[in-house]
User: What shape does this take?
Amino acid sequence: MVIERNGSLVVQADRLVLPDGMRGPGFVVIEGGQITDVGEGRHARPDLDAADQVLAPGFVDLQVNGAAGCDFLAPTEAGLEAAHAYLLRTGTVAYLPTLISAPDDRLRPALAFFAERMRRRTAPRILGVHLEGPFLSPARPGAHRSEHLRRPSVDWIAGIMREFPGVIRLVTLAPELDGAAEVVEHLASRGIAVSAGHTDATYSQATAAFDRGVRLATHLFNAMRPYHHREPGIVGAALLRGDVACSVIADQIHLHPAVIEHVLALKGPERTILVTDAISAAGASRPEVTLGDRMVRVVDGAPRLDDGTLAGSILTMDQAVRNVAAAAGELDRAMRMASATPSRLLGLDQGELRPGLRADLVLLGHDLRVTAAVVGGAIAYRSGA
Assistant: This one.
C-alpha cells in the first residue's frame, strides 16, 4: 500500500499507552504525518473514536524474513503487497525485511528490490534491510545453510553498502570470527546497527564485541552458545550490559515465558525488543514454504527443517505483545518492547505517543487484537473496512 500523508486526523480511545504508562481516556492530534498534541479526556470532534480500545504506538519489527507466502529473499510485487497487508493487520507499521545468508546472485536482487521499495511511501514503512548473515558461526547456523556462510570481510560488506547506499540498517554477525572486529568497527562508524547472533562467542569475546560497538543480541538464547555457570557466554554478557539490547521471539516455542520474565528482570523493557523472526509461512494458507533455498514445514505452530531445527516463526507482533503482557502482567511494558525500544535502537523519530514524533499508531480491541493502523498520519488499515 502506498499512502499519502496530507491533512489532519484526530484519534480518540479509552486508554492510551504513553511514555509514563497507561492513561485514558485521551486523544492524539495528527497534522502532516506528525503527532502535534496528546490530550486527556474527550476531543470535541474526533475522526476516529475508538471506545473500549487501546491506542498505542505502532509496532516496529526488526526481523521479518517474509509473510503471507512471500519470502523476502525472492520477493515479488504481489507477494510484498500481500505481506504488507498481513503486517498491517497485525500492527506492524514499520519493519526491516530480513535477508538470511545466501549466494550473491540471490542476495543482490533482493537488496535491489527493497532498495527501490524504500523510495516509496509504503505502509508499513520499509526502514531498511537487516542482513542476518552471512558472517555467522558454522557451529550455530540455525536454519542457514553452512555453505552460504562467509568469513567476515570489510571489503565484501563495503561493496554491498556502495552498491545499495542507505539500505543496510542492521547486520547480525558472529563477533568471535576472524575479521569480525574490523567489520563491526566499519559498520558502527557508519551508523549501522550491529547485532551478535548465530554465535558461539564466549563471555570475554562477547564483552569485547560490545566494547567495539555491537549493541544488540539477536533472538537471545536461540542459535547461540548457551549460558553456563562456568562460561556464561554471550547470553551472560548481553544480560549484564546496560548499553546492549536483546531481542526475543515471544512465541512460547523459541523461549519459555519464564525466560522472557528473567530477561525483563535484568534488562527491563528499555533494553528488550520483541521480534517475530517471521517467515513466509506466517499468514500463509499452506504449511510448506521456502526460506531462502530450504524447504520448511510448519509443525505444531513452529516452522521446522526436516531435522526438526526451528526455522523462524509464524509469530505476529500483536501476538507477541499479548504473550508478554499475559506473562509479565503489564501491557505498557510489552508495548514498549514492540515500539519505543526498537525505534530507539535504530534512532527513529517514532515509537511513542508524543508531540513531534511520526504518527505511526495502532488501535487494539479489548482482546488486544489490532482494529486499526495509522502510518504517517493516514489510516492504513481498519478492521471491517
Q: What stands out?
A: The mean pLDDT is 96. The CA atoms of residues 302 and 313 lie 6 Å apart.
